[in-house]
Design goal:
Helix content: over 70%
Low-confidence stretches: 191-197, 408-425
Structural class: mainly alpha
CATH class of the largest domain: Mainly Alpha
Shape: globular
Largest sheet: none
Number of strands: 0
Strand content: under 5%
Radius of gyration: 21 Å
Number of helices: 16
CATH superfamily of the largest domain: MFS general substrate transporter like domains
Length: 425
């Protein structure tokens, strides 16, 4: 069964099903947190801080496990942990249960973050990753549209039902992947050479040596730190800002919560309309590291400017428009960023180094999130979101510097230190 479906199609299935589940849960999750669980601005951000703290602690160990044992196993476990964590948060609309669910989900995110892209690169080759990630993003947006509609329907029966349905879908996905997911391109450390803690330390050390010896990767750590610090405010407070500071236009007999589904649909449709005609250009861009850096700078600048407009807007439609374009900027940049990482990492330590970059993002969220939450509680959501948008600006010079350092992929990899031999040697 594992040999009958290509790795590319399984990656599309994984991404689309996750997008379906996430859209089902996250379209109305802020309404669930605010109205059902009664969380305030600081508690909303603390939910994210707990998630990122747990993610930070588990990110490197899970990345090393993916490099030493099995990337397939890491992905499957990650999907199961995600489903279990969201189920806990959906069944009990209490602050403690939501925090516990975040810890469990963080293990899942950590298992997936380094392993998923590394598994894909193993199976299809690193040069094919960029086009697949861009194409997968389109499938994900279509699946997200279905999830948004499903969320609106389920929320009409109870705000917790989208969460529960999304969690069950992830648990089902884990079972399907266990049955059909292949792993042909990865060579684990031989059983007789395995020493769990020794291999984890060797894997971490090898990845750290490559990271320190590669200025471009150090630049990406800086970018991810500021991305995490900026994004946490929007992830946790953006919908609450709309809910608290604006009067939603009337939809007749429909509840205002339906507006979040409408906004979600509009964002997905905008992504499809804009990105699909640009797909060939984005694929070509992803193969040129220097052009990728300048493209990412432009997309992140767009994200920051629209985030500031969203924070300051006094009109509901202007705020929604800024939110949608901000999401488009992120959607354009995300696959390029991951393709760029893959091109500049060695296969044997790729999952570990992807995890390190993810950890930088988590650290940014942990350090930036509570401060933005305090601003939201003390001065209002506009202050928190405005500062959050400005925090992204220091990341832009990193892209400019990285563009001057970018070289063709093979040259970049040849300059990595010789002592980073495959783990276990």
């Amino acid at each position: 069964m594992k040999n009958l479906i290509s790795a590319e199609r399984i990656y599309y299935l994984l991404g689309a099903t996750q997008s379906l589940a996430f859209a089902t849960m996250f379209t109305t999750y802020t309404v669930y947190y605010v109205q059902a669980a009664k969380l305030d601005a600081l508690q909303l951000v603390l939910v994210g801080t707990v998630l990122e703290l747990a993610y930070f602690l588990f990110e490197i160990p899970t990345g090393v496990v993916a490099d030493v044992y099995s990337r397939r196993l890491s992905i499957i476990l990650g999907v199961f942990f995600l489903g279990a964590g969201f189920l806990v948060a959906g069944v009990w609309p209490e602050f403690w249960a939501i925090l516990l669910g975040q810890v469990i989900s963080a293990i899942g995110y950590a298992c997936l973050s380094g392993a998923t892209t590394a598994w894909l690169a193993d199976e299809v080759g690193k040069d094919s990753v960029g086009p697949i990630l861009i194409r997968a993003g389109q499938f994900d947006r279509v699946a997200g549209l279905v999830g948004i509609a499903l969320s609106a329907v389920l929320a009409s029966f109870g705000l917790q039902w989208p969460y529960i349905a999304g969690a069950l879908l992830l648990l089902a996905l884990g079972g399907v992947l266990a049955a059909i997911m292949p792993e042909h391109g990865f060579t684990p450390v031989p059983t007789e050479e395995r020493n769990t803690f020794k291999q984890m330390w060797q894997g971490f050390s090898a990845g750290a040596k490559v990271m320190r010896a590669t200025p471009l990767l150090m630049m990406l750590l800086g970018v991810e730190f500021f991305m995490g610090a900026s994004g946490e405010g929007f992830d946790r407070l953006g919908d609450a800002h709309l809910l608290v500071n604006f009067t939603f236009p009337s939809l007749g007999a429909l509840q205002p919560v339906v507006w979040f589904s409408i906004i979600g649909v509009a964002g997905s449709v905008l992504g499809l309309i804009v990105i699909e005609p640009l797909r060939k250009w984005l694929e070509a861009l992803s193969r040129n590291p220097k052009q990728t850096a300048w493209g990412l700078l432009a997309f992140d600048l767009l994200t920051a400017v629209c985030g500031l407009v969203f924070a300051l807007a006094g009109n509901f439609l202007l705020a929604v428009a800024a939110l949608l374009v901000r999401g488009l900027g992120f959607a354009l940049g995300e696959p390029l960023f991951h393709a760029w990482l893959v091109q500049n990492t060695r296969p044997e330590v790729r999952a570990t180094m992807l995890s390190m970059v993810g950890q930088a993002n988590a650290l940014g969220q942990m350090l930036g999130g509570p401060g933005l939450g305090w601003l939201g509680r003390a001065f209002g959501f506009r202050w928190a979101l405005g500062v959050g948008a400005l925090i992204l600006l220091p990341a832009l010079p990193f892209y400019a510097r990285a563009a001057t350092m970018a070289k063709p992929t093979e040259e970049s990899l040849e300059q990595l230190p010789n002592e980073t031999a495959p783990i276990g040697n």
